[in-house]
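Methods — Computational structure assignment.
A single polypeptide chain was analysed. Its primary sequence is given first, followed by the predicted tertiary structure written as structure tokens.
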Amino acid sequence: MIFGAAPVADAVGCILAHSTDVGGGRLKKGRLLNAEDVQALASAGHSEVIVARPDSADVLEDQAALRIAKALNADSHFCGLALAEPGTGRVNLHAVRAGLFDVQRDAVDRLNRIDPAITLATLPNDSVVEAGRMVATVKIIPFAVAEADVAAAEALARDSFMLAVHAPTAMRVFLVQTELPTVKTSVLDKTAQRLADRLALSGSKIAGEWRVPHSEADVIEAFTAIENVGDFSDERDMLVIFGASAITDRADVIPAALRAVGGTVSTVGMPVDPGNLLMTGRLGGRNVIGAPGCARSPAENGFDWVLQRIIHVGGCTDEWISGLGVGGLLMEIHDRPQPREG
């Protein structure tokens, strides 16, 4: 594409770079100039204008943005996106359903590095969105961009499934709370209610609750009872345990009890604060969360991120958890036992 000043007489078929007054009217930036436009410019006293002149290897901005946006939503059922009409080199993408917005950051970065002329901006990964929310926008910077670069962006977008809105799964959550003499019943009641509140947004519910002393043997007994509940092996089931004392090691009471009944411990600790002292694992193929103490509060913490990921995506990998550090410093919960700054 050639960009610069051109005699008005030679501007037919060029793209006007800047809005320009013509007598009583105005030709807008981005307009593809025709013979009548050129005559109006000349009559208004303009001898030259700033234009962009695409060549045969270029794609106009709206066409380029639309092609890339369509590739991002190539599997519309999986991606759950809807495309707005293109304009000024931009196509916005909106969620067609409520859910969790899932972004493959590495793929977005690779797309944005094809050429600075092609840009994709999104909401943060794991944003909970309502239907109709704008989640991403494709913007072409110049008036036209090279066909080869558009084709490369299309291929990457189509092959990587880098954007998707995952609908929630209504889950049955089995709750275990351990007790010590210092833990009030009212605290346990509030904890159960706040968990229920968090689950309600997805249609998930607490299917049963066990309150047991904070000992490995008693937690084993609770886990065993849950395994014996009807169809606990259903993929929509999850186990959440709040300990009267925080989990600080893989050999601690709760992870030890989980291994003792044949479960697995995936992670102990996460780079999100509040929420550092969280455990993830599996029991009978179902997700297990050892909740940190801050999850007793309604304030956002790392437990919320893990809970939403399981409800919407079906689980969370060790790699996903270890990648939460950037942005993982959340607002302090000042009434927790050990705040960051005393």
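Note: DSSP finds ten helices and 20 strands in the chain.
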